[in-house]
Amino acid sequence: MNLLFCINDNYVDQFKVTLYSLIANTSVKDIKVFIMQNPVLARNVEIKQFCQKIGATYHPIVVDSDSFQNVPITDRYPETIYYRLLAQDYLPEDLDRILYLDADILCINEVKALYTIDMGQAPYAAASHTDDSELTTAVNRWRLGNYDSASYYNSGVLLMNLKVLRDLVSHQEIMAYINDMGNRLFLPDQDILTALYGHNVINIPDEIYNYDTRYQLYYAAKSKGEWDLDWVMAHTVFLHFCGRIKPWKSKNSGIYSSLYKHYAHLANN
Question: Could you give the count of Cα atoms lying within 13 Å of 142 in the half-sphere of its Cβ?
Fold first, then answer.
């Protein structure tokens, strides 16, 4: 299993929790971890030692910063959010697929079923956090200019079909779209993903593979009470701590925060 992260030094501790939780809950033994980075992470030796201790191999990938000149960035959306869009240009050519994960994700069940799905000619498998109502879908299609996209996709969990992506994705096309959209990009990486490639994405269920922890009440209502805490613990693979309130912050008391802190304690040990 190939795993991809795109982080800076501020997110090394969180990355370690995400990786530890995945390895603790999967039967896969051969796990390769790739981190796209620029500049080179100051904690690379620590990361390598951590991966060795938990049975993974570490492969740092240094990104050419010239590839991302003039992209819109903020404190919340740093340059690293764009790396996943061009990952196929930097990863070894003998890799045919890789699973990208944000570093604010916790794995609580086996991920093998997702990693091994038949992707055919689809470039990505991803989940949507929108309600897929006709109005929401229509607004996003109009805003992004892709009227064939089935949904608006969250980029925090991306199964990437590298063979297809190497032929499909164009650096020039991405940069041209960024320049054309300007400040109309609300969530830049997700807007680009949906706008340029959303019509070919395999839609995976977010309640299983990209559960937004802010919306447990929404999930319960959507499922008429079926997707309660017990259901999530038995079925959900990835809890995604989206938004500004993060579980590693001391005052966070969300329903899944204590579970995250438990895994953080184990990873730290």
Answer: 6
| Beta bridge pairs of residue 33 | 3, 58
CATH number at residue 143: 3.90.550.10
Q: How far apart are CA 113 and CA 125, in angstroms?
A: 12
d(CA 102, CA 156): 5
Cβ burial, residue 98 (10 Å; 0-12/13-18/19+): buried
Residue 141 has pLDDT above 60, yes or no: no
**What pLDDT sits at residue 77?**
67
Chain segment 68-92, per-residue pLDDT in tens:
776 766 666 678 878 999 999 999 9
Scanning the structure block, which residue is given the tokens 């899944």? 256
What domain count does the chain have? Answer: 1
For residue 51, the enclosing domain spans 2-268
SS3 43: coil
Q: Could you tell me which residues come within 8 angstroms of residue 157 by beta carbon, excluding any fewer than 6 positions away?
A: 99, 100, 101, 102, 105, 126, 127, 204, 209, 210, 238, 240
Provide the 3-class DSSP secondary structure of residue 17: helix
Within 54-187, where are the H helices? 112-115, 134-144, 162-168, 171-181
